[in-house]
Design a protein that fits this description.
CATH architecture of the largest domain: 3-Layer(aba) Sandwich
Number of domains: 2
Number of strands: 5
Radius of gyration: 19 Å
Strand order of the largest sheet: 2-1-3-4-5
Oligomer: single chain
Mean pLDDT: 90
CATH topology of the largest domain: Rossmann fold
Order of helices and strands: EHHEEHEHHEHHHHH
Helix content: 25-40%
Distance between the termini: 46 Å
Strand content: 5-15%
CATH superfamily of the largest domain: NADH:ubiquinone oxidoreductase-like, 20kDa subunit
Bound molecules: iron/sulfur cluster
Low-confidence stretches: 241-245
Length: 245
């Protein structure tokens, strides 16, 4: 029997699910041949409470999200955090830098009293996560890599080195040399350095590498007149290092 796969969304723009639908036709057909997709709100109207693998997109931002996520965890044998919102909190973390009442008021004005909100959390602050598919949105190649590894009973090989490495492989001119502040020296690779390759800088949507070479990175930043603290502050857009109130 094929494993049953379900997709669920919490606070998110649903861009990760959309990206899953962007798998090329051959990859999508291979995937459908290997698994049964039983929940996928963006692509089908049927749904089921019986599944083996749950993909979670989005972060936890309401008290009621906690019980919902715990229920999904109880039902799934394998739970995968999909995208920056689920893996590190994502852009929803911007509200964590102000009191929650203020955030509610900015969004809902006079109707704020009708809504509840809590500081944004990545899903592993609530439940155990078996696998992470990182990025905003995550590369389809990494989604496939993780699913294939699960089906083969292997551990997926996800890079744990900085984006700088992939930048060098791509032959990019360093963003610092183009007068930009870049989080590539401390951010986790796996995106193919796509933002820098397209002429932008890295904002750290894949989170920090596990063991950043802090001394070496400090040296690079100092050379360009930036402190490590200033660089890490940039991660606040995606939550890493963000202070919760
Ligand atoms: Fe949207 Fe990015 Fe969050 Fe995915 S990680 S839901 S693309 S904001």
């Amino acid at each position: 029997m094929k494993p049953r796969v379900a997709f669920f969304d919490f606070a998110s723009c649903e861009g990760c699910q959309l990206e899953a639908l962007n798998l090329d036709a051959g990859e999508l057909l291979d995937l459908i041949a290997a698994v049964d997709i039983v929940n996928f709100r963006e692509a089908m109207s049927e749904s089921s409470d019986t599944y083996d693998i749950a993909f979670i997109e989005g972060s936890v931002t309401r008290e009621s999200d906690i019980a919902r996520l715990e229920k999904i965890r109880q039902r799934a044998k394998i739970l995968i955090a999909l995208g920056a919102c689920a893996t590190i909190g994502g852009v929803n973390c911007l509200k964590n830098h102000m009191p929650m009442e203020e955030a509610l008021k900015i969004v809902y004005g006079e109707d704020a009293k009708n809504y509840d909100t809590i500081p944004t959390k990545p899903i592993d602050e609530v439940v155990h996560v078996d696998y992470y598919v990182r990025g905003c949105p995550p590369p389809t190649s990494e989604m496939l890599k993780v699913v294939k590894a699960i089906l083969l009973g292997k551990k997926p090989e996800i890079p744990n080195y900085p984006v700088c490495v992939e930048c060098k492989w791509s032959g990019n001119v360093c963003a610092f040399e183009r007068a930009m502040t870049c989080l590539g020296p401390v951010s986790r690779a796996g995106c193919g350095a796509i933002c820098v390759t397209k002429g932008r800088n890295c904002w750290g949507c894949r989170g920090l590498v596990d063991e950043p070479n802090v001394d070496s990175e400090k040296e690079i930043l100092q050379k360009h007149g930036i402190t490590l603290e200033q660089a890490l502050q940039k991660f606040q857009i995606y939550c890493t290092g963000g202070e919760k109130k």
